[in-house]
Structures are given as C-alpha cells and as structure tokens.
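Dear Dr. H.,

I hope your travels went smoothly. While you were away I took the liberty of generating a structure for the chain from your last submission, since the lab meeting agenda had it listed for discussion. I wanted you to have the full record in hand beforehand rather than looking at slides cold. The sequence, exactly as received, is reproduced here:
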Amino acid sequence: MTDQRSVEGGLDEPTELEPEQGSLDLAAPEDTWTATDWEREAAAVLRKSKRLKDDDADELVWAKLTRRTLDGIEVTPLGTPALLDDLETSGRPTRQGDWDIRAYVDGRDARLAHEEALVDLDGGVTSLWLAGGTDYAVALDGVLVDLAPVVLDGGDPDAFLQYVGDRELHPGTNLGVPASEATAELGRKAWQRGIRAFVIDASTIHDQGASDGQELAWSMAEAASYLRRLTEAGMTVDEAAGLVEFRYAATDEQFPTIAKLRAARRLWSRVLEMSQGAGEMTQHAVTSRPMMSRYDPWVNMLRTTVAAFAAGVGGADSVTVLPFDGPLGRPDAFGRRIARNTSHLLIDEAHVAHVADPAGGSYAVEKLTDDLARAAWELFGRLDDGADLAAEIAKTVEKRERQIATRKRPITGLTEFPHLAEELPVREGEPDPVRRYGASFEALRDAPAATPVHLATLGTVAQHTARATFATNLLAAGGIAVTTEAGRVVCVAGTDAAYDEQGAEVAAELRTNGAEWVIVAGQPRDWADDSCAMGVDALDFLTRTREKLA
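The corresponding predicted structure, in token form, is as follows:
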C-alpha cells in the first residue's frame, strides 16, 4: 500500500491510512474470494431462477451472464486481470476538472432563443449550442461571447462573424460547419480568431440507429476525409486537427458510453499518427435523442442523468443534457432547468469531475474500450474500401427492434411498467423529429384499443398475481386495458397446476359466454388460441390481440 502525504508532513510520521506492520492484506482469509467461489455463488442464484439446471456445471455462469452489444462485443459479468492480456490500444481522457455544461438552444425563433439562452447562462451553463439559422443580433443580445463559447449548428458562420465584429471570442467558440463542408478559407478565418470552425457530428449517425462501433467508425471516416481536404488546400495536419470538434451521443447504457468516448480518443490519436500529426480530441457529448420516450417522459430524467454521468466519466470536454420533455414539443423552463442542473449535481454534489478518468484501470472498462476501438477500426477500414454503412446500420436497427419487441431491451414506462391512465405534459411546438427506439410501441399507445381484454384469474390472489400482473403490463404496453367483465377476448392467468386441472373447462365456459379468443398467460396450451410469456414477441402479440379486439 502506498501512503501519499504532503512534503510538509514528511514520510516518517505514521498516519491513520498506514496499516500496522504485518497487516497488509486488505481482507481476512475467510473474506478472500476466488473466481471459483464467485462461480459457485452465481450458479446458486441462477439455479434458483431456473436459468441453470441442478446438474449444470458452475462454470456455465460465464456463458449465461455474458451479454453481447449490438456490435457483437462480449461483455463478461465480472472484470478480471486476465481481460487485460491482449489489449491492443491505449490512451486516456485528457479533460481535467469540470466539463463544459453546454445548453442546446433552438434558434429558429430568435426572441425565444434569446430568452432561453440568458436564463440558461444565468442558471450556470457555460456554453451555448445554437441550432438553426437565426438573427444573431437578437438571439445573442447580452451574451458575453468572450466568456461563454457559442457553438453554431446549421447557422451562417459569416453572419455570426459579422455580428461579433472585433469582439474577443472564447476559444471554445465553434462556427459549427460540418467537416464534410470544410474549406481552408473558413478554417483560416477561424484560426485567426482563435476559435474552431468545424464539427464531426456522429450523433446524427446515432440518431439513424447506428451502434456505438458504427458511430465511431463513421466519425473516423469523416475525420480522415476532412484532414485530406484541408491538407490538400495547404493547411497542416495539426492546424486542421485544432479546428475540429467531435460530437457523440451518450446513452443510458453507461459502460458502453464510457468506453465509446475513451475509444474515440484512441482512434483519433491513431488517425493523426498515421497522418504525421498530433493533437488531442475535443469532444462534445450529447444525451441520446432516440433513447427518450414520449410516454412516461419523467423517466427521461433518469436516462439523461445516467448518460451525463457516463459522458463525464468517459472524459467528454462538453456535455449537453437534452430536456426530458423534448419528445413532447419545445421544452419548457422546467425541462431546461432540470437539464442544466443534471450536470451541476454530478459536478458539484457528486464530484464526478474531480477525478480524471475514474474508469481508467477498471478491467471491464479497459477491455470494453479496447474491443470497441478495434471493432470500430475494422469497420473504418471497410468503409474506406467502399462498405455500405447504411446497410450496416439497417442490420443494427433490425437487431435492436427485435430486442425491443421481445423486451430483452426494455424501455421503462413504455414496454415495461406502462401507465395507461397517465396525463402527459403539454408542450408547444413540434417534438424532436428523430425516430425513438420505442416508436413502434408509442404508435400503439397513440391509438389505444377501444375495447379491453377480459382478465380471468384462477386460484387465490397469491397464486395468480404474478401472471396476472405480467399479462396486464404486457397488454398495457400495447394500449390495451384489462377488465373483469366478460368480453370477446379473454386472458386466463393462473398457475400451471391450475391450467392442468381446470384450464380446458374454464376456456370452454368462457367461449360459451361469448369469448371468441382465449389467451393464456404462460406457455401455450391446447385449449387456448394464443399465449404470452417471458420472451414473447410483444409487438407481434399485441398487434394480434388488437386485431381480435377491433
């Protein structure tokens, strides 16, 4: 154990941090666990949940608990030193201290944008991401551009430069021109003003449904093309690298997000090295738009908090938390306040920014970072050889849609634990146009079934509660309510023993009383027309059920 003390304190005086002689072991022998011990305990849990059979070997827990990302990368359930044996990449985030809290401002209405910008700045944001063409004299009136960086998105860079005139600009200012449209002329203008000019916005690929690896690969392909264009126009690699900022999406899958941002820096470093250049990546992370839900939007606060945490831990220089009510329309003052305060809480109260690269050295994170960097580099090479990225993304979208349909990738408040009677907040303006991951389920909720399903339970409350609750929540995810009154579509919920003993008789009686379609909560039965259980294609099941109700 190393005891780090100040020079003034010297190294001779013992401290409370220093263990007594002969007690360097941090755990007593009876508290020391091996991987074999972990396998045994984990296997016991899986056997209780029927995921392992009694005669299965304990070591099967690795296969049972290992999951695969959309890029096909295996994520093991336990980090071990052996994970670091074959790492090929290295590099750590460079941000020191607090990240830049960047507020997203829709500039289409210049006066409203002006009001929102001033409130956000007064509330503690440190930069503005101004989207859309706007009247800069109105939108930025009163904004101290030497203290608060302004990052344009879709605006007119010449009009912005004309507006600010000779005023000093914060070096974090960015004219926001897509790297694919970069010119040496605009680059030199920005260089003279000491600001950036270009953005490689990989969040646009994320919004199309891309995986983390595809997002990274696309950004490197754009970066390589950008460097070629500007160096051919007479700029050096280092000059061009200093003018561009990278933007990535941060999701509520915290470890993949942390790994993605760390991997991005390693990839950019490699691209610069191969281009005979050097420099650090300037990184802006924005919370994912597709992960948001229009139903039970309050859950979006939790999603964006996890995403912002991951972005900060991953080393992002700037972080934008999008308001939770964005899927409903233009966010109101409350939504914007919660968005900016998310970073404040993480920085000032949770002290997340006080440690540089807190995930560094974690066996699992280092392995995931390396795997993701390697997968992205491989795809980057294929893109350079002409691979069709759109086709690759389409496969990812199909895979994700399948996982969401079967609820292996649950969306709280939408596919899991939906609340049919909720009253959604009302927001003015158009919602964020991106297609959300739960769009198929949202479409069902948008047009709720006019007729409920008759929920028929067998046995005592204790006997039928589990399956009745499962079926009720599943039906609600498709906009279908349940009732205890007789109807054309019936869902029977009970134990397997009850089904064996009286299922056929109950189903026959229900049909006599007018039931036209009988569903069993559990595995299929001969006396039922349909069934629903864990792993069912919920979207397909709900569509069938709604057709029977229509």
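Two observations you may find useful: The chain has three domains: 29-84, 100-383, 443-549. The chain has a mean pLDDT of 93.

With kind regards,
E. W.
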